[in-house]
Amino acid sequence: MKFSSLKWLSLSRVLFTHEGVIEHLIAHCPLIEHLAVRHCSVYNHLSSEVPRVCRIYRVKSLFLCGLQKLKHVDVQGVQEVHVDSPNLENLIYRPSNDSAPLKLNFDSCTNLRCLCICLSKSIDIGDKWFLELFSKFPFLESLKLDNCSMSQSIHILSTQLKVLELSHCSNLKEANIYAQNLLSFIYRGIDQPAISFLRSSKQLEVKGYHCSLREFVQNIKPEKILASASLFIYQSFPIEPKQGALRVSSIPPSIKAVELLFTPENEALYFPYMSDLFSSCCPKSISFRLCSVADSKEFIEVHHYLQIFCMGPPIYNCTSIPAVSVFVFTLFHRFVLSNSVILQKHNSFSTRY
């Protein structure tokens, strides 16, 4: 069987008779450009000594060679992957086991532009790993590392890198980034390392997904970077915000945008929560989401308190805080119909001051 004109091929949770079938199929697609192999398995029908359930196992290895047109590869659930394609531009890799030794070889893909590696705990990503990565792939523009094991201190040096994402990377305490063309930096994780942008573009936008605004603001250097930062703070309801948990200093830095999601069950929490927020940073815009079990009382209360803060320094007694230009309110009503069915109603509007 040959697919001489096929350019897109996606294999997701497919059960094969043996591993060679995948490579045989791909080898007969000479014009393939986009390839995805996700969590495929093999059924060993020849092994009659073991139960049928035990005869099914994940594909262990995948070799992609001689595919001159291949540009995009997404491999998930395979522990050993070899890619030999000089025109490959985008590679996404997630092994089947984050603790078992993995083998990922794509050294010949020197034209690589985007790399995403997830769930890699078996290798320690440190300065040597980054140095070799950017020397082997001089055109790399986007790097995303998710749930990877890293050194406590890392240095990232690249003149081509434009997008950098670090999500839930363990052990990381300090990141020093030398990337003058970097346009987007995203950090996700409970632990907040010290992040320094020693060389950066004026167009750099920083996004942080955290429960602690205080640590994020304190650990970003230089402070001027925060002017282009968008912060996403998700409180796990019904946890109540602690007094002073968000407070940083008497002169809060300017931040581009802040998005909040929490569910206070006591209206007395609104004012101290917003007070701590504004003493931590001066956002140009705020997106505020609420989850209401019964009605829109919480929504009205927050709107009221935000109006108080926007009326000016006499209420807040702080002349260093500029006016917030935009508030976006989102309310989620939740009506419990039964133990297994929940109906949600969504309301949203924006206000300019």
UniProtKB/TrEMBL annotation:
PANTHER family: F-BOX DOMAIN-CONTAINING PROTEIN, OS02G0105600 PROTEIN. Residues 105-208 form the At1g61320/AtMIF1 LRR domain. Transmembrane segments: none annotated. This is At1g61320/AtMIF1 LRR domain-containing protein. Pfam families: LRR_At1g61320_AtMIF1. Gene3D superfamilies: Ribonuclease Inhibitor. It comes from Stylosanthes scabra. InterPro entries: At1g61320/At1g61330-like (IPR053772), LRR_At1g61320_AtMIF1 (IPR055357), LRR_dom_sf (IPR032675).
